Amino acid sequence: MDFTLVEEEQMLADVVGRFVEKEYDFEARRRLAATPEGWSAGHWTTLAEMGVLALNVPQDHGGLGTGAVETMLVMEAFGRGLVLEPFVSTAVIGAKLIGRAGHEARKAEWLAGIADGSLKTALATLEPDARFDLWDVAMRAEPTRDGFILNGRKGVVLHGDSADILLVSARTAGEQTDKHGITLFAVDARTQGVSFKGFPALDGQRVAEVVLDDVRVDASAVIGVVDQGYPLLEWTVDQGIFALCAEAVGAMSRLSDLTFEYLRTRKQFGSPIGKFQALQHRAADILTAVEQAKSMVYFAAAKLGDDDELEAHRAVTAAKALIGRSARFVAQQAVQLHGGMGMTDELAVGWYVKRLTCIDMTWGNTEHHIELYGAFL
Length: 377
Hints:
alpha+beta, Butyryl-Coa Dehydrogenase, subunit A, domain 1, 3 domains, 4-stranded antiparallel beta sheet, 11 helices, 10 strands
């Protein structure tokens, strides 16, 4: 597989890489994660000015309309710096879903807001009892004369407490675990009956529990087709999973760099521990795992650029499974080679481990995606 970037792609990678190097050194990131918001509005404005938020917005709505490769390059850079801003929730999932199936009366306004940074979205799909099953939806949407009334609860909504628009899955027909009967809605977060409980996750990223209590929306809130939202939901989550896989590759790459530097500088018996052959073998295994993960995310990017959505879904599922396994291996090796201090909050290594752990648990862990991939065989 040819990993060579064209000039425009390399320029994007360089620009975003410089942003991360300038704004996301370890101490700056720790301070930012400790704020009530958990991310920087100033950084968000900078990303909008750079055009990064417009990457997945269609060109006919003022965006750049780029593909999976550009998203991958941005997320790899973000993974190296453990960036906290709600890029995946808004500039990937929000832009992709609204661009594909948003109501024509609202699409232009929403997409323009995503591109200029004035509007943020959050995907509210998973429920407290559903674990990773997207089709397990108890939230109800009852039809009214001019719209729907939504009732239910969503858990662990990424950046849910900062969203202007919630992208919600709700049941309009069928039983709780039926794939048919799911409808997607765009709900204004300021609507009466919407409430949040935001908190930091293990890795410092903001998440929220969201409750909808007799929330009224009109027909223009429907995304896609009533009762037929599951395929669209699955496609949307695949976009988010792919972005997280690319972020994991960036985080693993940086974590391996930190580990190799420690092996070069930490001395035992008068020489760097990196000179011990047993540790050199472990370093080689780390590098192999990172390169395998990188190859898999490039493969998924290529498949997402094709028209075959089933093959793209298979590729993303395979990527999540393999990258989850590689991330766990790299994280465990990094901690073991650093010793006990590898899990302290005062050392960057521990935060990369936490982020990789949370990525693995988002939208299905390694075992879940191995099971899903097995169903394709």
